[in-house]
Amino acid sequence: MEEKGNPREQREVVKARRPEGSRPAPLAPSSAEKKRQRTASVAAAHNDDTIFVRRVPYTRLDVMGRGGSSKVFKVMGPDRKTYALKKIRTKGLDRETVESFENEISLLKSLKGKDGIIRLVNYEIQPGLIYVVLELGEIDLARKLFKMREEDKPIHENFLKLRWQEMLEAVNTLHHERVVHSDLKPANFLFVEGSLKLIDFGIAKAISDDTTNIARDSQVGTLNYMSPEAIQGQGGSIPGEKPRLKVGRKSDIWSLGCILYQMVYGRTPFAHVKNFMQKLQCITDPRVEIEYPPIPAHLSHLSGDLLSVMKGSLERDVKKRFAMDELLSHPLLSGRGAGCNAERELSLPLSQVQAMLKQMHATGGLTRDLNVDDLMSTINAQVKGGREIDITETLSSSIHRHNQGEEAVEAQTPHLTSSVSQSRPARVSEEMPLFSTLFCPPF
């Protein structure tokens, strides 16, 4: 039998083997402790001027908005580019709301790199917190239309056609991915570097493989842009089951038709009906005719095509309503309609016009009061001549004229003191940073 040593002697031996001044090696932290340390480091970073999302530092520049459990920051990334960073506190929110946030992140991941869709830059989901980093927009279509109406500026034909095509192609991208947006409205289209991009997918849902419709548990969307089928409840097949809604691709077509109607007439089809219940009835009742006043004079040469698109999109019978391919190939965009004048205007591919707008954004031209007709004439001449699109010269001359105009105004008002002129409110421009309502209640 092996003889055991004295315990005191054993301790002395261990002590002798340990280098002088050293301490026992610390125990490895548990997984829970590691998690706590990570959360603490993020919280510490957030308390500073830097927010870490998946260990990527973003410097806070400004608070762009807040609402409910959300806050939106304008931030600068390590690449020196500015982004919109959304911080969402999910503690206390119901599971359905949290799932809508997670669903949106998942959808944006699957749509990354697709044209016309807001780009997800980074995200992180933690217990009680969600961080989302998106590309930064300048202004949404709702505010743009409001601004144009407030300044009494008619919507130019080129603006209407280009933005309509951009909206169609963005939604078409979504539909190809078997997803229905369900909440299309001007506020959900954001200008990014001069082009429109689709945002806010919180209530979007994938379409099952065997149908073009999806069952929805509750009514969603914005009433003035909601389709009749999105409003009308469908009884469940199981006794006691709550009503469900069938919403498909054609529902998004109706919403797009409402947006086009607003661009043409300055309001949605039933905006004049103020009573909520009456509005519901007007949208769903086929006996209530949608009014189509005369097309405004500056767009009168497009009357036939515009009325055709609006009536085809705002058809209550889903089977008779236009499909996406019909809208994309419609003469309104193809230039083959009765109102088309080939000598007066050349129809440009969307990709070329978007390249022009990006060039304008890069040179700061979007903040200027440019003459759109002159600009498009220049582009048309370049395309007809087989030359590459270059609007630098046009922008420079336009900016020069703009500056001369401001100098003339200042010269005519010498009585204004410098302090008064400096206190004038800044011009509202398209470069005003604006984050969408993505994940965020209205501010």
From TrEMBL:
UniProt feature, compositional bias: Polar residues: 414-424
SUPFAM superfamilies to which the protein is assigned, alphabetical: Protein kinase-like (PK-like)
Protein's name in the database: Protein kinase domain-containing protein
Record InterPro entries: Kinase-like_dom_sf, Mps1_cat, Prot_kinase_dom, Ser/Thr_kinase_AS
One GO CC term on file: kinetochore
Gene Ontology BP terms: meiotic spindle assembly checkpoint signaling; mitotic spindle assembly checkpoint signaling; nuclear chromosome segregation; protein localization to kinetochore
Ranges for region Disordered: 1-42, 401-427
Keywords tagged on the record: ATP-binding, Kinase, Nucleotide-binding, Serine/threonine-protein kinase, Transferase
UniProt-recorded Gene Ontology molecular function terms: ATP binding; protein serine/threonine kinase activity; protein serine/threonine/tyrosine kinase activity
One Pfam family cited in the UniProt record for this chain: Pkinase
Organism: Palpitomonas bilix
Keyword Coiled coil: no
Protein kinase domain sequence ranges: 58-333
Biased composition (Basic and acidic residues): 1-21
Source taxon at top rank: Eukaryota
